[in-house]
Structures are given as C-alpha cells and as structure tokens.
Design a protein that fits this description.
Elements (H helix, E strand, L loop, with lengths): L3 E4 L2 E5 L10 E2 L4 H9 L6 H14 L4 H9 L6 H15 L4 H24 L7 E4 L16 H8 L5 E5 L6 H13 L2 E5 L4 H6 L5 E4 L3 E3 L4 E4 L2 H11 L3 E4 L5 E2 L16 H4 L19 E4 L6 E4 L2 E4 L2 H8 L2
Parallel strand pairs: 4-5, 4-7, 5-6, 7-10, 8-11, 10-13
Antiparallel strand pairs: 1-2, 2-3, 8-9, 9-12, 13-14
Helix pairs in contact: 2-4, 2-5, 3-4, 4-5, 5-6
The structure holds 5-S-methyl-1-O-phosphono-5-thio-D-ribulose (MRU).
5-S-methyl-1-O-phosphono-5-thio-D-ribulose (MRU) binds next to helix 2 and strand 9.
C-alpha cells in the first residue's frame, strides 16, 4: 500500500484521516488542497509531508517562493517539510526539472528507510517485545518507515516480534495507523492506551522502544509525537533501550537544543470531541493540545539514521556526522 503515488501526471494521496475504516485516495490540485491535506493530517509523518510538499512545489503553478512559505506554515515542527521545499526551491533556481526532483526525493526516502530499517533491525532479536508510539511506518514515510521499519523489514526476514502500540492521544495515530499497518503486515500487535506503557514494561514485555522523530537538535534532543518523552522516561526507569529512528534530514544543526524547536499547537476539539460520539468536556473547558514534545538526549540510547547508529554521547556522534 503506497500513501503517495504519482501516476500519469497526477498525484494520489491516501487520505489517512479515513483510516483504518476506509482506504481512499484523493487528488489535490490547488495550493489550498495541498495545504489543507498537510494541516488536517490527510498526509502526516515527517518524511511523508516532505515528499508530498515536494510534489506540490512541482505541480502547483504560481510564485514558488510564496508557495514554499505557505506550505511550510502548515506544520512547524517537522523539519522535513521545510527541508524538502527548500531543496525544491533550490532545484527551481538551478533550472532543474521539478517533477524529476520530487520523484528523486520520494525515491531517496525509500532507500533511506530501507537502510534505517536494516540498522534498526541489527539492534533487535527475534521474539523481542517492542513498544512504539504514534505512527512511524510506511504511512509516515515512503516505505517500511523509520520507527516501524525494523519491524516490517524483520517480518520479511522471518523475525517474530510482539509489538505493543500506544494508541497515541489525541489523534490516535497508534490505534488508527500503526495497528492497521502491522495487522496488514501480519505482525503480532497489541493496542494499549498511552497510560498502560508503564505496566507492560514492568511486566517484562518490552525489550526495546522504537519511535520516529520530527526534528533532532544538534545536542541530540529530539522532538517526537506528544507523549514520546513519557515513554522515554519510563524506558530509562525500567532499563529498556529507547531508539529514535529518522532520516539524516531530520537533524537540524541550526537548533542547538530542544529548546529551539517550535512545538505545533493544535485545536482543543481534537482532545474533546473529534473521536467521541459526544464531547467529553464542556464546550467552554480550555484545552492545551501540543502536537509534539521534546525527549531529552540523555533518555535516548541511540539515534539511527541511514548513515548508521549513533550511540551516546549523542552530541559528539551527531557532530561527526555533520556534512
Ligand atoms: O502529527 P503526525 O502524525 O504527523 O506525527 C508523526 C510523528 O510524530 C511521527 O512519529 C514522526 O513524524 C516520525 S514519522 C517517520
């Protein structure tokens, strides 16, 4: 199943807001369609929004600089979005064919995910219990994924993992997307509420935690889906390795630490009413709905990119990787 397909000049996007109940492709045309798709999470996951925005930059007519700024403003935390639009703007300035460039970004992501998955798999053992948060699978990238990549690749190689996925409040990417992807791949997956992670760890059911990332600061702090830092704190408490898997382009050397990372804040209705038959709180009740949180570098066992595995100390490891 491909989330983004470019066929005969048309871009097809699997609408992730409808999953797991309906598999439907939409065909965005205008810059507003592309913006809406990113903003409302019809496409989501850091690498996937970068790929999608790259196609938008190639396919939508008009002032390309304005288009870049407009698309970048849809979601501020994932660096892959502005990284991809900057690369497309550069390609435009150099007179390159923009469709070819967008396809290259898409294909490169497939190669990166495969390498990240291979490195990640080298850290796991057949039969391991894995905890994952949000969705960092093929739906969030191009294929395999980052956080889920070792599991999907491992399945192909005959590994059997027992995966626990946090439902990931409030937008339920774990429930709606990760359990859907893993079920389809034939991987043993059990859905838990986010606040059950401590118990399954204490019960000895988890050997490693695997997550994706939206922005990695130069010191190794990482911005991940809201709730990830809680899983990292628990993992440290129980002595379980905590791995962050992401493409090299997720590292933002302009951010010294997590404090420099802008955290997207979303509408409180996502907490109160989006997935409920009736609202769970009064209309006037205030909500705070940050979409990401920062996992402090000392909680992370290793960061895995397509360039290899960076173990502690992360800051020094990232510095060596800088090119
Ligand atoms: O808000 P989302 O669903 O776009 O958040 C996605 C995540 O946090 C992913 O885990 C992250 O982007 C890594 S995707 C490989």
């Amino acid at each position: 199943m491909e989330n983004i397909k470019f066929e005969n000049g048309t871009l097809y996007l699997l609408d992730q807001t409808l999953l797991p109940n309906e598999e439907k492709y939409i065909t965005p045309k205008t810059k507003e369609d592309y913006f809406y798709a990113i903003k409302t999470l019809q496409v989501r996951g850091a690498p996937a929004i970068g790929i999608f925005a790259a196609y938008a930059m190639a396919l939508v007519e008009g002032d390309i600089k304005e288009l870049k700024a407009y698309l970048d403003s849809a979601r501020p935390t994932a660096v892959n979005l502005s990284w991809a639009t900057a690369r497309m703007l550069d390609a435009y300035k150099q007179g390159k064919n923009l469709i070819v460039e967008a396809i290259a970004i898409h294909n490169e992501d497939k190669e990166m995910c495969k390498k990240i998955s291979e490195y990640g798999l080298s850290l796991l053992h057949n039969g391991d219990g894995i905890l994952t948060h949000c969705n960092a699978g093929a739906l969030a990238t191009s294929q395999y994924g980052t956080g889920l990549g070792p599991l999907l690749l491992g399945k192909e190689k005959g590994y059997n993992f027992k995966v626990f996925t946090d439902e990931t409040r409030p937008l339920l990417q774990g429930a709606r997307l990760t359990s859907y992807e893993l079920e389809k791949a034939g991987i043993d997956v059990t859905l838990i509420c986010d606040n059950m992670a401590s118990l399954v760890m204490k019960q000895g059911k988890i050997n490693a935690v695997l997550v994706g990332a939206d922005r990695i600061a130069a010191n190794g702090d990482t911005a991940n889906k809201i709730g990830t830092s809680g899983a990292a704190i628990l993992a440290k408490h129980y002595g379980i390795p905590f791995y962050v898997l992401a493409p090299y382009s997720t590292i933002d050397f302009n951010c010294k630490s997590g404090e420099d990372i802008i955290i997207e804040e979303r509408n409180g209705d996502e907490i109160k009413s989006l997935f409920f038959e009736k609202p769970t709180a009064l209309n006037e009740t205030k909500c705070f709905n940050p979409a990401f949180d920062v996992t402090d570098n000392e909680l992370i066992t290793a960061i895995i990119t397509e360039k290899g595995i960076i173990k502690q100390p992360l800051k020094e490891g990232l510095e060596k990787l800088y090119d």
